[in-house]
Design brief:
Length: about 575
């Protein structure tokens, strides 16, 4: 806090000057004692002054007995996954009670490099939502795929001490950490030397390997899957995030391992959350509500979504309703059966009411982040899948998450060994097309559990390198879908019987758009309906979110990159043919 601000607040706190605002008759969330108390909250210059009744204020508002909750902090998110620009994302999540996010821009940086980071920093200035960043640690995520950029420790060094840079983003390359990879250690050193946080990403890592990972200063993880894993990670000092994204939903399972003893090490995050999910369910508040419904005491859940994140990331000016803290909070009538923000205040100003933003955030024109589509010599012939045998490895989708299984199946082939789609079997072709460096690489494999009956779906969102990924039962529709994305600069598209069903254009890096939340939601709602009714995609999965994670070679077990079929558990490429 600056001296001038402290002087102003001291005068207000001692009654020598009027406060700007008082919220009266509120049930205030005390995240320190993990309880609620009835009182008044006095505010001056955007900060909380105190609760004392003998203070004066220019403006008075009656909470009418509603709960006054500190603004929620999303401890880990990728704004890009909302398909929205930072300003539109702010307008979407602030009405849900989220006032601060810790964002990792590795999606856009994997496409456009440091230009993406510069855009995200600029576009998130002067908007209601407080946006802090973790510089991406894994661009590319692994050496087993081609991304649009390579960011080394030397590239990140000039950003690490930035005012809104809190540390290093999720360190997905845990094998590199354990093996003392020189470049990985250089990136970790940036945080060691500058006193910054290091986010983790270590699904299923346990025992001595987990201890080795943690001792390097990596102190968070959002990939825990079981209550037992959560407790081991908190025991070893990590903050564990209860994640409720669109595809990855871990709150109900993980909350089983949370209690008063380890609540101080629990955070909430959304990770990847699509616009329909935000519109219909909310943001990080939805995960908090689920945890409460599963039995976690409201006071504990609220603490995890506010104070804990502030402490974890060193945001000492927020996270609680207390003197000297930013007046970021929201009012709600209910906390036991789900938390929905009714009135949202940021720096003591009402910014959203009735789930609507009052004044739209300042928009920043995208620069140097157009969708890169440098694809070489693509044709239908490159989608041809030739097999040496009938028994093959299959990427098996697991509904409700992004983890897959290593499946096997016997498939049909023609006399040349080319795979033939069998309408009776739920097995489809999946292809990844390199789009950044004109390598001409195209890899093909087979996937089960997607449910598509006829046609093709393609998207330029393919975590984390974001090459083009397509799935279908025939090469003609897949070819047209891929070519459509190349022509538009990226997005999501669907074809059936050589006809375009719908296309969602994402002109910012092939990941995001300048369209509004309502426009994006309407388009995706229509496309989801067509995917289910006209293509027959399974109701148990999100047709687009699920597909975009099938190229992520850091999440078990079997994934497809532009270089081939990758066994994440073995951390190596494997042939399509099974033994």
């Amino acid at each position: 806090m600056e001296k001038e601000l402290a002087e102003v607040l001291l005068d207000a706190a001692n009654g020598r000057d009027e406060c700007d605002l008082v919220i009266k008759n509120a049930r205030i969330a005390d995240v320190y004692n993990q309880e609620f108390f009835t009182g008044n909250v006095y505010i001056k210059n955007g900060y909380i002054v105190g609760f004392d009744d003998d203070l004066k204020a220019k403006e008075e508002k009656d909470a009418e007995g509603r709960y006054l909750i500190p603004g929620f902090i999303d401890a880990h998110c990728h704004i890009e996954s909302s398909h929205l620009s930072p300003s539109e994302y702010s307008d979407a999540v602030v009405p849900t009670g989220c006032t601060t996010v810790i964002a990792d821009p590795h999606e856009i940086c994997n496409v456009t490099g440091l230009d993406g980071l510069e855009y995200m920093l600029k576009a998130s200035e002067d908007i209601p939502l407080s946006v802090y960043f973790m510089v991406p640690s894994c661009v590319p995520a692994t050496a087993f795929e081609h991304s649009g950029a390579v960011l080394l420790a030397s590239d990140l060094k000039k950003y690490i001490d930035g005012k809104r840079i809190l540390g290093l983003g999720e360190m997905m390359n845990y094998p590199g950490v354990l093996a003392k990879d020189e470049e990985v250690l250089k990136k970790l050193s940036l945080c060691w030397e500058n006193g910054k946080n290091i986010d983790g990403h270590c699904p299923s890592l346990r025992g001595k390997e987990l201890s080795a990972y943690v001792l390097t200063g990596i102190n968070t993880d959002h990939e825990a899957e079981t209550a037992e894993e959560l407790r081991e990670k908190t025991r070893k000092g990590m903050y564990v995030m209860l994640r409720q994204g669109t595809a990855c939903q871990n709150v109900k399972e993980l909350v089983k391992g949370v209690d008063e003893k380890n609540i101080s090490r629990i955070l909430f995050c959304t990770d990847d959350r699509q616009p329909q999910s935000i519109t219909r369910e909310g943001g990080v508040n939805y995960g908090v509500s689920l945890a409460i419904k599963e039995g976690l005491a409201p006071a504990l859940a609220i603490r995890a979504a506010s104070l804990n994140a502030a402490l974890c990331y060193g945001l000492s000016d927020r996270g609680s309703i207390a003197p000297g803290k930013r007046a970021d909070f929201f009012l709600t009538s209910e906390v036991k059966d789900g938390i929905k923000a009714e009135d949202v205040y940021i720096s003591g100003t009402l910014v959203a009411s009735g789930n609507r933003i009052i004044k739209k955030a300042k928009h920043t024109k995208p620069e140097n982040v157009a969708g890169k589509m440098d694809v070489k010599d693509f044709s239908k012939e490159k989608l041809r899948l030739t097999l040496k045998g009938d028994c093959v490895r299959i990427i098996d989708i697991v509904a409700g998450g992004v983890v897959t299984k290593c499946g096997k199946a016997k498939v049909k082939r023609d006399e040349d060994g080319t795979w033939i789609h069998d309408p009776k079997a739920d097995i489809l072709k999946i292809s990844v097309i390199e789009r950044h460096h004109a390598t001409g690489l195209v890899s093909n494999a087979l996937i089960r559990g997607y449910g598509l009956k006829h046609g093709a779906v393609a998207t330029s969102i393919a975590h984390d390198s974001h090459n083009i990924i397509a799935v279908g039962d025939n090469d003609e529709d897949m070819e047209l879908a891929v070519k459509k994305l190349i022509a538009t600069g990226g997005g999501i598209t669907m074809f059936c019987d050589r006809k375009e069903l719908a296309t969602h254009v994402l002109e910012i890096a092939g990941l995001m758009t300048d369209a509004t939340l309502s426009e994006v939601t309407a388009c995706l709602d229509m496309m989801h309906e067509k995917a289910e009714k006209e293509l027959g995609v399974s109701k148990d999965i999100d047709p687009f979110m699920t597909l975009c994670f099938m190229a992520l070679p850091v999440i078990p077990a079997l994934k497809l990159t532009d270089s081939g079929l990758f066994d994440v558990n073995a951390f190596s490429f494997v042939p399509l043919e099974a033994d």
